[in-house]
Records
---
Amino acid sequence: MGIFRKCKKKTDCLQLLEQFEYERLSDGTFKIKKLKNRKTVGAVIIPDCVTAIDAYAFSDCGAITSVGIPEGVTEIGERAFMDCTALVSAVIPSALRVLGDHAFDGCSSLADVRIPSGVTNIGRFAFYACRSLADVSIADGVTGIGDGAFSACSSLTAVNIPESVTVIGEDAFCACKALASVNIPSGVTEIGDDAFWGCSSLADVSIPSGMEYMGDNAFRGCSSLCRVTVAEGVTRIGAGAFKGCGDLRSVILPSTLEAIGDAAFEDCVLLEKPDIPKGAWVAENAFNNTKWKNDLNK
């Protein structure tokens, strides 16, 4: 039996709405406020007359396995599906514009997700600790990945970030231990603090030329990282940016680089000595515990 069906009549819509607390909106559509029976098991059908899902509407409904969200839904509120631990499938409609903070936080059985182009910003911690999430598709049109959006998604192996994205927030992919491949588009101007901290399977990273801010600890503890290329135009590498990247062997730095922060490459024990641009400020401990640290100024 499908989890989604059209409401051919107004009565069909009202019958399906009986399982929810809801609000009628000014345009005649409805907003779901809350699922009445929080112990509902299995699939939930949301009628086509619904265009918004309120904050906390399904939070802690731990036995729901699938939700059919109608194509007309434009808003999913904060924590709407938080801790729906049995939720395997939730198709996000193409009309969606607002994906709230913590919307699917703790949905530990959710396996894949498609973010449509109308969502300009993925909310903070929207998919935090979705530990079964292995496949993420982000459509061109999304401009921001919020703080912690995919943090602790320990099954996520790859993510294709579209060219439209300009900001990757703090902790955005922190502790995604299986993440082996990520592209950072040329339009990205900011990578937040701790954005990829602990992505221990990540092997290769290229930092684009438009980067205006690369946060502290951005790639800290990426223990499989062996190559880093920082494009011309980048002026600063943040404190602890690559600290503890024990397999890191090669770093290519741009002539535009002006500063390398505290402990930026500390404990990169296999790192070959990079060509550091003349005049760049280098923190005293930037290269602590590298095999050539004492030769830095030679």
Note: The radius of gyration is 22 Å.
---
Amino acid sequence: MKKRLVIVILLVLCGLVILSCGKKISFDHYGVYVKGNDGFHEILNNYENSNVILHNDTSTQIQYKTALEIYVYSPQSKTHDYKLFVPFFLPDADDVDLFDILENEDFIEVKLTVSPLEKQNDIVKLTANITSYSGPLILFTTKENRGYLFNSKNLLSDELEKDETTKLIEEITNSYRMTQSIQNSRQSIISDLQTYGAQVMQYYRTPLNQGGGGSSISKGDESKIASYIGWEDSSTITDNGTFSLSIIRSNSVQIVGVGTVIGNDGNNNVSATITVSCTSRSPLSTKVNN
């Protein structure tokens, strides 16, 4: 009797395993679906003037525990070439132009394993070679130039040792963000310097009786120039950095701007200098120091 009971239990368990293995994945309509811990999430895309516009809805994270799985349900799913990108930088906008990211190479490619599902001709399973990554991802189908942007969150990322791909992504992303921060700070400094340089030229050309230099600048005029361009002293501090003004020779003014982030040398803040040669045909000359 006990043997029969054991056999029946084993048969039932085998049947359940067979049913589980034979269960098909199905979707209501064609599309791209990411398998999350709470089920499947459809990822949308859009087109505008022949450009691929990605919906920048990365506030919603698709949570997963182990490998990241993406399913493409399409009549041409098995003929497409697929690429998965980790973007280094996403504009702070509702929509993102995919080709801007591709042309600027602002991404790292993640290896994908493509597995067509048996007896389901229209569905392809894509498995990402990342096991501990959390952040934005872009799936790109090269033949159709379609892009799909979504945000992933690995629930075990704090417990798992980071895989090599994730380590590389973080290293490159951090380096890219640092580079972007340096470039942004430097550009802000240069923009301000050019504004101040133009104001110095305006001071030089303004008659004496109107508060200007009357076509003459001499050493000791720093405070007059500073007052004219809106500074309280020969130096000023703004949100973009610190600026200091000096007269290096007759009719020649130099302004140095120092930004708020460490520059390329890794030790000193970004900086640039503009030299205003008032009697020159091209009076403004800008130089990047760091």
Note: Confidence is low (pLDDT under 50) at residues 16-22, 47-51.
---
Amino acid sequence: MLIFAPKKIRLLLMRKETKLNPLYFSDYENDGQKKYYALILLISSLIIFLVSALGLFDWLSELTSSFLESKLGFTNKWSKSIGPEWFVGLNKDVAALGGFPVLFIFLTIIIIYYNLRKESRRLWRLLFIITGGCILMLIAKTFFAHEIPDDPIEIVTNSISSFPSGHAMMGTIFYTTLAVTISRRQHSHKTKRFTLISGVVIVFLIGISRILPANHSVADVVAGWSLGANWLCVCWILERRIKKQLKKETAVVSLSFNK
């Protein structure tokens, strides 16, 4: 392993790598800047999630709920949802983009696509991000649940806690990952920007569609967004470290063959 090699050997390998790849140092600087931004986003999203968990956004949730109730009213006298039936149905359709059935269908299509292209590395990376995010969501919901069911299956099949919003969190993880993956294969900056913005807009609409009909509070959705962003930052940092290590090991192999 390169990290255990003496300093002189590490310097020699770095020089050798610059000959193999003249853009090594510029790529390293760009990765350093991206890592810096990722750490800022990681810390910021973690702080926002903790603020939401401590109830410091409850005033905003109550203010938003009171405003929507006064402007739209309840669907009927027996319902807790806000707005007319068409309004509730519209938001339900948008929120379905972050629900389990739609995400499962999309994920199945992507798995088949990667298998057909024999891109197992990208497939396992995607499965790690989505599965890990789902496990993190279940852990968070279990931790903040007022009552934990005796049957463990109910933790998966039923929503045991509204905090954090599962639709907002999984929508953030899935559609942001999908947008980043697609943008990496695009060469035009305009199409890359459009792809990333489209992913963000979908995530935003999913969260808003949970707030408007009073299915979730603002604090629930903000917590889902922030925890999803937090997990994505962790995954990105891990990916950078793995790629950096593989790059160093490739340089070691190249040096040994060129001796």
Note: The chain has ten helices and no strands.
